[in-house]
């Protein structure tokens, strides 16, 4: 006897509450259902169901077997859906959310390439630095830059980026070079409004963690604005390498206190559930993972 069929029949009986209803659900005879359950009990050597003329109930062993077998059947269904979705064509509307600066600099050039591979997908891309609720706001995928992804979402790590303290050579020539975090308290600072720690900046130095309360001359909720102010010699910024990496490479910005490390963050593609992942979502996540696997060392 097929163990999977026995397990499936037993679960159908428990879910339906009767052998007759289970037979209807499985489109087999009541005699076949009774035989499958009886064979299962005989093979296991235990009684799984208590049968009376009025009702069915699970024995203690039946409760254990039902819980475990239900998980296994769900896993089989999930595996079948995943495999079949891989072979299905990606199509339909795909709503994507991404941070503003990262979306413009590193994602915008990719949409044409993605569309050329998946012409039946229509993209709706929204850029915003706030954290959106994927389910409530109807997004299929979001790009998140964080120390850890949300535990309530499924995530795929695409790349990483680190926060760099930097300023222009001209600013440093006029105001001096800060040598330790405490020096930042007397420097002009351009602050990114969405930092969870606000104006208190944290570092991990040679002697351990250290923090400093800064006094920004400019607050902004946009990383490009921070960068532009630093390039205009207005002060010190703490921004990710995906934004200031080229400036550091050509010398228009200079990294400060490299022995004091700030955050390193992952760049993730996140989506609401692992079950029933649509071909369009799977196609985008795999496309982005493949692209950033080649460019990861650039940051």
Characterization of this structure:
The chain is an alpha/beta fold and 299 residues long. It folds into 2 domains: 3-87, Winged helix-like DNA-binding domain superfamily/Winged helix DNA-binding domain (Arc Repressor Mutant, subunit A); 94-299, D-Maltodextrin-Binding Protein, domain 2. 42% of the residues lie in helices and 25% in strands. The protein contains 11 helices and 13 strands. It has helices spanning 3-16, 19-26, 30-44, 60-87, 100-107, 111-117, 134-137, 169-175, 223-231, 241-250, 279-295, and strands spanning 49-51, 56-58, 92-98, 121-127, 141-146, 154-167, 189-192, 200-205, 208-213, 216-220, 237-240, 254-255, 264-271. Strands 3, 4, 5, 6, 11, 12 and 13 form a 7-stranded mixed sheet that branches. Strands 1-2 form a two-stranded antiparallel sheet. Strands 7-10 form a two-stranded parallel ribbon. A hairpin with a 4-residue loop joins strand 1 (49-51) and strand 2 (56-58). The protein is elongated. It starts with a helix and ends with a helix.
β-strand number: 13
- What is the element string, with H for helices and E for strands? HHHEEHEHHEHEEHEEEEHEHEEH
How much β-strand is present in the residues?
25-35%
**Span from first to last CA?**
57 Å
Mean pLDDT: 89
Structural domains: how many: 2
Backbone CA Rg? 29 Å
CATH hierarchy, class of the largest domain: Alpha Beta
CATH topology of the largest domain: D-Maltodextrin-Binding Protein, domain 2
Which oligomerization state do the chains in this entry correspond to?
A: single chain
Q: Quick one: biggest sheet?
A: 7 strands, mixed
What class would the helix/strand composition place it in?
Answer: alpha/beta
Low-confidence stretches: none
């Amino acid at each position: 006897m097929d163990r999977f069929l026995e397990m499936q029949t037993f679960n159908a009986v428990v879910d339906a509450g009767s052998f007759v209803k289970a037979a209807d659900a499985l489109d087999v005879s009541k005699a076949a259902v009774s035989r499958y359950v009886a064979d299962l009990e005989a093979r296991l050597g235990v009684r799984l169901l208590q049968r009376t003329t009025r009702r069915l109930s699970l024995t203690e062993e039946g409760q254990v077997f039902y819980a475990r077998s239900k998980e296994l059947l769900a896993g089989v269904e999930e595996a079948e859906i995943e495999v079949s979705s891989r072979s299905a064509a990606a199509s339909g509307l795909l709503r994507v959310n991404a941070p503003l600066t990262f979306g413009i600099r590193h994602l915008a050039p990719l949409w044409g390439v993605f569309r050329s591979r998946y012409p039946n997908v229509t993209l709706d891309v929204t850029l915003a630095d706030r954290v959106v609720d994927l389910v409530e706001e109807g997004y299929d995928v979001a790009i998140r830059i964080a120390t850890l992804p949300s535990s309530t979402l499924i995530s795929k790590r695409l790349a990483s980026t680190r926060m760099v303290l930097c300023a222009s050579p001209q600013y440093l020539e006029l105001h001096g070079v800060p040598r330790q975090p405490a020096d930042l308290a007397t420097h002009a600072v351009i602050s990114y409004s969405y930092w969870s720690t606000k104006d208190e900046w944290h570092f991990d130095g040679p002697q351990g963690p250290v923090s400093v309360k800064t006094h920004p001359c400019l607050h902004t909720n946009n990383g490009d604005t921070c960068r532009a102010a630093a390039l205009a010699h207005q002060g010190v910024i703490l921004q990710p390498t995906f934004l200031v990496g080229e400036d550091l490479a050509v010398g228009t910005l200079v990294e400060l206190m490299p022995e004091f490390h700030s955050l390193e963050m992952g760049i993730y593609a996140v989506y609401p559930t692992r079950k029933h992942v649509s071909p369009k979502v799977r196609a985008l996540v795999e496309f982005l993972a493949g692209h950033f696997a080649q460019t990861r060392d650039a940051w």
